[in-house]
Amino acid sequence: VSDGPTDRTLAALLTPPGTAAIATLGLCGPRAWQVLRELFAPAGTPGRQLPVEPRLGPFWYGRLGEDPRGTAADEVVVAVRRTDPLPRIEINCHGGREVVRYLLELLEARGVHVCPWQELERHGEADPGRAAALAALVEAKTVRTAAVLLDQYHGALARAVDAVRAALAGGRVEEAGSRLRALLRFAPVGRHLTRPWAVTVAGAPNVGKSSLVNALAGYPRCVVAATPGTTRDVVTTLIAVDGWPVELADTAGLRTGAAGLERLGMERAERAARGADLCLWVLDGSAAPVWPAETFPRLRFVVNKIDLPAAPGFAAPAGAAAVSARTGAGLEDLCRKLADWLVPDPPLPGAPVPFTAALCERLEEAHACCSAGRAGRAAELLEKTWD
Ligand SMILES: Nc1nc2c(ncn2[C@@H]2O[C@H](COP(=O)(O)OP(=O)(O)O)[C@@H](O)[C@H]2O)c(=O)[nH]1
Ligand SMILES: [Mg+2]
To answer: Cα separations (Å) of 187 from 42, 183, 184, 279, 344?
Structure first.
């Protein structure tokens, strides 16, 4: 007996785990219908059974259990979603962890493999690119990133990858390389469609870092106080900037000569600033500027407290944003700048975008292979694009 991937019958919980009125289980594979027929009794005339072959269209209401006519059976509604290439059935049962566990165990006892929903979505899927985009789509945090992923779900990236593969198959390695380079233009965006950009807010104590994070979040997320050294831990907040998901990290103020708990907070702040996609260094425009002691990567300046008179001789760095976290002045402009710093080259609707970090890496490697004249290896990598 062969046990290839499509010979298996899989089951997964499709709705989130927890309690609700209903839950939905997916059952997919060559034995899906047979297993369901054994466990399911349609309501109505005693002795009624499901048809021998799965049929698209009708919904069946009845009971599902070891002995579906006995007491330990749940009321369910079942439907066939697909018959080709593998039968795919959905079972709507009562919600709640124990009902779901009971039904999944029943299926498992009949040789069905219980798996995560993502694996079920891929099972027998003729278009694996579509399944991969669907898995990413549910992770989208904003409408804008969802729109980009929806384009990929409708095949934008899959078509572009097919064109690269066709070029390689035709021996046109240079064309394949330039097509890959064009695709990789949007890799920086693609890496953040399911994972927000990390933006750290850093600066000296009391310049208004926590106030700025609160102003951007639109609610008092962080403690603000006139006492320097109030913020100790890194506090993160998820916001959307021009439709891009951004995780803002408020940090402890950085100053020289700190010790103890303050020093620990500063170390965390420095780590966050070094690892961020962007570090916003906040300056208090009404006081003598405190510049960063080290040059953090991807550093940008924000001058805060512009509602107060500027400190004599204060010269803002070129390109800095100027805001008042107190009055809200300049925040819109800061958001525009932030979006431009993070995504200087946003994809147009319908553009192919490599939409996960793993896809970006695979395409980068394939591109490097093309440049090195290793067309065979590039083709091999693209064979497994969606794995
Ligand atoms: N006038 C004015 N005061 C501000 C502004 N932003 C923050 N502050 C005040 O500056 C002090 C320190 O603010 P905070 O956000 O805790 O600074 P942090 O230590 O950098 O996090 C508080 O008293 C705030 O009310 C601003 O834009 N204008
Ligand atoms: Mg603070």
So the answer is: 51, 7, 5, 21, 12
